[in-house]
Amino acid sequence: MEPDLYGASDGKAVGTHLEQKFQARLRDKQEYQAGSSAKGIDFPELRVDIKVTSIKQPQSSSPFKSARQKIYGLGYSLLVFVYQKTDDHEAAAARLEILHTIFVDKNKTGDFQTTAGLRKILDNDGNEDDLIAFMQERMLPVDDIQAAELARELLQNPPEAGYLTISNALQWRLQYKRVIEAAGAVEGIVRVR
Hints:
This protein is of the alpha+beta class. It has a domain at about 5-55 and about 75-105 and about 170-190. The protein contains six helices and seven strands. The radius of gyration is 19 Å and the shape is elongated.
């Protein structure tokens, strides 16, 4: 039971609370280098970031670096905690239940539709022009020069299938429904609990 979260509807407050609780528990059991907001991820040595999200709308934000992240992944792995919060009015406390804990390998953190489309083009002997046209249709945040560079790279280094849904914005909006469904069935997406 969590009295501090009773009545809270702010997902960020719940996420921060759960993340701090997890980190405190981990520090009791393991010595490690903690991350910081400046470094951008929670476990920089491991290249793993924690994401905490509600089952009602399983999503979070992530810093935007480049369109390459939609294609080749975020560059780090994710440990995703999906919770359900209910308020116990008699106890004046919140009850938090972790429904899913999922590890997503960095190679699986690309955007599902983008990687699927690019892989299909490459499987059909697509060329640089086909890849550039696809990136423009998907409105990837790239200019013509970046699109051409990415297309050449894709021809040499096809992307792995990504399993996130990443929405274009000033920050990436990561959505986890597909990850929840694929956990345990796809190599690199592990259901921890």
